[in-house]
Amino acid sequence: MAAPLRIQSDWAQALRKDEGEAWLSCHPPGKPTLYGSLTCQGIGLDGIPEVTASEGFIVNEINKITCLDISSGGGLGVSSSADGSMKIWQASNGELRRVLEGHVFDVNCCRFFPSGLVVLSGGMDAQLKIWSAEDASCVVTFKGHKGGILDTAIVDRGRNVVSGSRDGTARLWDCGRSACLGVIADCGSSINGMAVGAADNSINLGSPEQMPSEREVGTELKMLLLAREDKKLQCLGLQSRQPVFLFVGSDAFNCCTFLSGFLLLAGTQDGNIYQLDVRSPRVPVQVIHRSGAPVLSLLSFRDGFIASQGDGSCFIVQQDLDYLIELTGADCDPVYKVATWEKQIYTCCRDGLVRRYQLSDL
Q: Which parts are the WD repeats (predicted)?
C-alpha cells in the first residue's frame, strides 16, 4: 500500500524564490509520520528551480509544462511536459485523471479533437500520436517527419490532421488509415506554429494540380497558415497546395491564428503581433508591440484575441473597444500557451503551473 504524501498547499509559489521552503510529510502504514522540507537552491538558466529535500525525501525531477488544451465540453484539460508525458486532468479543479506515456523527449504540442474524448500530440521524437482520453491508450502513431513536431492543427471533425516540424515540412495525415496524405509545404525552415481556417469567398485558393485523395475530408475552402523560423508567414490552400501569400516579418514567427475568413494574427520572436488581411496582405492592418519579449501564443477570443509572451505577460485585447485586460500571476516566466472554455481562461507557464482565470462579462 502506497504511503500518502502531503505537501504545503502553496509549495509551487514558495519554491520559485531562492532559498524558499515548503514542508511535506509522509505517513507509511504502521510507522511514524515522516516530516521534511523542500528548499529552492536557485533558479536554473532554463527557468526551472533547483530543489533539494531533507529527511530522506528525494526530488527525482522537475518538469516544465509546454502546452495545454481544454476539451470542447470544458470538462477535461490536457497538458504536455518536457519529460515525454502528458496529463489529462479535471478542468474544474486540476485533479489528475490519466497519464499518457509513449513519446521520447519533450512533448511540444497537445490538443483535443472536437469530440473531447481523443487527444493529438506531437513531440521532439518526430512522432505524432493520437490518444484515448478515456483509457490513456495510444491508438495511432504517425511517422514520417525527420525533425521534432512543433505544432498541429485538426481539420474539421478530425478525419484529417496537419503537423508542422523542425524539418521544414507541413504534412497532412489520414487518421483512419494512419497514413500521410502528402507534404502540403516544404519551407526549408522550421515551422514553429500553424493554423487552419475557413476562407472567405473572396479569396482565391487556387486549384489542386492533382485530384485530391478521397481520404481528404474537409480540406476544401480551407487555408493553412504557417509561422516560420526564417521570418516568413506563409498562407496556402489546404486542398490546392497553392500559395495565397508570403509575408516577411521583423523576426522569426512563433505562432499564428485566424480571426475570421480573411483576418489573421501572427506573433514574432521580437514581440510584434501582426494583424493581416488575406485579401491585401502586403501591408499589415496593424502591428501591436507591447514589449520586446517573444510572442508565444495567440488565440482568437470573442471579438478580439488573447496573447502571451516570454516575459510572463498575458493579455486580452477586445478589437472594437481597443480594450485590454491583463492576466497576472506568471511574474517573469514565459507563458507558453493559452486555452479557453466559455468564460474560463487557462494558461501554462515555465514555472510548471496551470492557471485558471474566471472572467466576468466583458
A: 58-99, 100-141, 142-174
Residues 34-75: tens digit of each pLDDT: 999 999 988 776 566 789 999 888 887 676 789 999 999 999
Write the pLDDT tens digit of every residue in 293-317. 999 999 999 889 999 999 999 999 9
The grid coordinates of residue 260 equal 475570421
Average pLDDT, stretch 257-261?
A: 97
Q: How far apart are CA 153 and CA 196, in angstroms?
A: 6
- Which pLDDT band holds residue 132 (cuts at 50, 70, 90)? very high
**CA separation for the pair 58, 161 (Å, rounded):** 41
Residues 6 or more apart in contact with residue 116 via CB below 8 angstroms: 71, 72, 73, 75, 76, 133
Alpha-carbon distance of 256 to 266, in angstroms, equals 4
Ordered DSSP codes for 176-196: TTTEEEEEEEE-SS-EEEEEE
Burial 84-100 (b: 16+ CB within 10 A, else e): bebbbbebeeeeeebeb
Residues 37 and 169: their CA atoms lie apart, in Å, by 48
Among the listed residues 171, 281, 286, 275, the one whose alpha carbon sits nearest the alpha carbon of residue 235: 281
**Residue 321: pLDDT above 60?**
no
What are the strands of the beta sheet with 344-349, ordered from one edge? 335-341, 344-349, 354-358
Please tell me the distance from the alpha carbon of residue 32 to that of residue 25, in angstroms, as a whole number. 11
Say if residues 259 and 274 touch (Cβ distance below 8 Å): no
pLDDT-derived band of residue 218, with 50, 70 and 90 as boundaries? very high
239 touches 215 (CB < 8 A): no
Cell readout for 115 is: 469530440
Q: Which residues contact 317 (CB under 8 A, 6 or more apart)?
A: 288, 304, 305, 306, 307, 323, 324
